[in-house]
Amino acid sequence: MFGPGRRMSRRTARRTSRRVSKRQAAPQQPQAAPPPPAAAAPPPAAAEEDYTDELEKLADLKVKGVITNEEFEAKKKQLLGL
Question: pTM of the predicted model, to two decimals?
Answer without folding.
Answer: 0.40
